[in-house]
């Protein structure tokens, strides 16, 4: 049974994520402020479902001026796509060797060079590819308007990473001068891309206290710092996380275990010492790689192998996706699940579009102050009419209330006046009755006095 927990999702800040699945589909997920609670939703889908076009590796130039994305598929094709609208720029097949037609020799390593700026006149890009057999290649690809194979320049570099084993992970540093490779039966090694020469090779750890030797099987790797290629972190199939420093020694400087399933995804934090780790059972956690201390686990609904972990370059958000077809967005500070999106197909990779916040959130003019002013003006105009209506309604209510008060006062005065008039009338009647009684008494007295006078 999958592990499920009821967690309230507070929503995400404005962001844009590109996901890549096993059927070759590219889906764009966006979260905006206008949506209720910042819930991310699928806004676009590129491609048609085809298992032979499953996306194995992805590389993206996350630039605000000229963004570009390369996708390596299971059938051996490499497609260069615009991450903004999904337009196809170039297609390259059999980029490395003739044996790419075999399913066991897929392109597992892919990188687009961002330091070589794209020229509008030449319309070309430089691409690094590496197959699971260890065939690496660097070449320049020209863009074409049609969906045909793009021509490659003759100035290409090819070399072999390993004589045996399978390459499973490939990573290029920020300076784009060095690349590391590792895999099943292949120790992690670093190559100089300019000279295509190996500059460092790891040494396998010694046997444990029981005399058991752990076979070499690297599944993922990432450089720890953007400015330094000498320190990197690698995950193994034996659920170990290893820290290497090529300036110190060939063996791991630090090694620790994480749960009991193979490490499938790794990514370093922007602080330079924290790493995010995901394994084959859906567990995800963050570690302080300086000491190997567990900082905390990411708690949420997890029910599948994690295949990709990506840290947002600016926002405190980290994304994870895997074979359970869910894209999950987490808060890096609290490790709380912000939101999750079900995408129907098993996911292999995810990438953030950092330029989405600058372009989409303050929609308006070019500069940020002007954008804020325009948004404030719009909000004031929108809010002006209901406020006036409310005031007018209040005035009407006040007028009606005054009229009601005046009417009530008048009725009370009338009642009082009626009461006074009635009292006066009663008093007059009483006085009249008293007067009549007194006159009658006087008459009776006079009559009594008058009778004896007549008798006398």
- Helicity level, as a percent range? 10-25%
Indicate the radius of gyration in whole angstroms. Answer: 42 Å
Main sheet attributes: strand count, strand direction, barrel closure: 4 strands, antiparallel
- Count of distinct strands: 28
Q: Note the run of SSEs as H and E.
A: EEEEEEEEEEEEEEEEEEEEEEEEEEEEHH
| CATH C-level class of the largest domain | Mainly Beta
First-residue to last-residue Cα separation: 137 Å
By helix and strand content, what is the structural category? alpha+beta
Judging by the overall fold, what is the CATH architecture of the largest domain? Answer: 7 Propeller
Count every helix, treating DSSP H or I runs of 4 or more residues as helices. Answer: 2
Give the uncertain stretches in residue-range form. Answer: 1-5, 96-101, 358-397, 439-456
CATH superfamily of the largest domain: YVTN repeat-like/Quinoprotein amine dehydrogenase
Please give the domain count. 2
Biggest sheet strand line-up: 3-2-1-28
Q: Indicate the proportion of strand residues.
A: 35-45%
Average pLDDT metric: 79
- The CATH topology of the largest domain is what? Methylamine Dehydrogenase, Chain H
Shape annotation: globular
InterPro entries: WD40/YVTN_repeat-like_dom_sf, WD40_repeat_CS, WD40_repeat_dom_sf, WD40_rpt, WDR74/Nsa1
Region (Disordered): 367-456
Protein name: Putative transcription factor WD40-like family
Biased composition (Basic and acidic residues): 394-403, 410-436
Indicate the topology:
Layout: E1 15-21, E2 26-31, E3 41-46, E4 55-61, E5 68-73, E6 77-81, E7 88-93, E8 107-112, E9 124-131, E10 135-142, E11 157-160, E12 166-172, E13 178-184, E14 186-192, E15 197-201, E16 218-223, E17 231-236, E18 240-245, E19 254-257, E20 263-268, E21 274-279, E22 284-288, E23 293-297, E24 306-311, E25 317-322, E26 326-331, E27 337-342, E28 347-352, H1 355-360, H2 368-455
């Amino acid at each position: 049974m999958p592990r499920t927990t009821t967690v309230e999702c507070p929503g995400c800040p404005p962001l844009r994520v590109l996901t890549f699945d096993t059927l070759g589909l590219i889906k764009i997920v966006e979260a905006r402020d206008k949506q209720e609670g910042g819930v991310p939703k699928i806004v676009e889908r590129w491609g048609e479902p085809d298992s032979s076009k499953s996306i194995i590796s992805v590389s993206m130039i996350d630039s605000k001026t000229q963004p570009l994305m390369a996708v390596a598929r299971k059938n051996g094709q490499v497609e260069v796509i615009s991450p903004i609208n999904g337009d196809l720029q170039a297609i390259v097949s059999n980029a490395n060797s003739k044996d790419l037609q075999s399913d066991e020799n897929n392109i597992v390593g892919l990188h687009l060079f961002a330091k070589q700026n794209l020229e509008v006149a030449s319309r070309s890009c430089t691409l690094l590819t590496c197959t699971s057999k260890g065939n690496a290649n660097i070449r320049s690809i020209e863009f074409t308007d049609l969906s045909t194979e793009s021509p490659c320049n003759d100035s290409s570099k090819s070399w072999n990473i390993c004589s045996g084993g399978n390459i499973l992970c490939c990573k290029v540093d920020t300076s784009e001068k060095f690349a590391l490779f590792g895999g099943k039966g292949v120790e992690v090694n670093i190559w100089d891309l300019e000279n295509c020469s190996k500059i460092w090779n790891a040494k396998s750890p010694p046997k444990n206290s029981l005399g058991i030797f752990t076979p070499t099987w690297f599944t993922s790797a990432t450089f720890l710092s953007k400015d330094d290629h000498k320190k990197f972190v690698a995950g193994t199939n034996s659920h170990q996380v290893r820290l290497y420093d090529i300036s110190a020694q060939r063996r791991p400087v630090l090694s620790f275990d994480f749960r009991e399933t193979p490490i499938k995804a790794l990514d370093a934090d922007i602080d330079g010492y924290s790493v995010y780790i995901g394994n084959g059972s859906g567990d995800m956690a963050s570690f302080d790689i300086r000491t190997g201390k567990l900082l905390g686990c990411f708690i949420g609904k997890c029910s599948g192998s994690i295949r990709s972990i990506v840290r947002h370059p600016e926002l405190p958000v980290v994304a994870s996706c895997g074979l359970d077809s869910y894209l999950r967005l987490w808060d890096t500070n609290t490790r709380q699940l912000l939101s999750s999106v079900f995408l129907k197909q098993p996911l292999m990779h995810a990438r953030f579009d950092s330029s989405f916040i600058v372009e989409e959130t303050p929609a308006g003019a070019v500069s940020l102050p002007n954008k804020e002013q325009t948004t404030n003006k719009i909000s004031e105009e929108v809010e002006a009419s209901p406020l006036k209506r409310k005031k007018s309604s209040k005035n009407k209510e006040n007028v009606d209330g005054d009229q009601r008060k005046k009417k009530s006062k008048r009725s009370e005065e009338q009642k009082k006046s009626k009461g006074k008039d009635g009292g006066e009338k009663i008093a007059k009647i009483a006085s009249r009755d008293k007067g009549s009684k007194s006159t009658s008494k006087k008459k009776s007295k006079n009559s009594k006095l008058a009778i004896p006078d007549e008798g006398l």
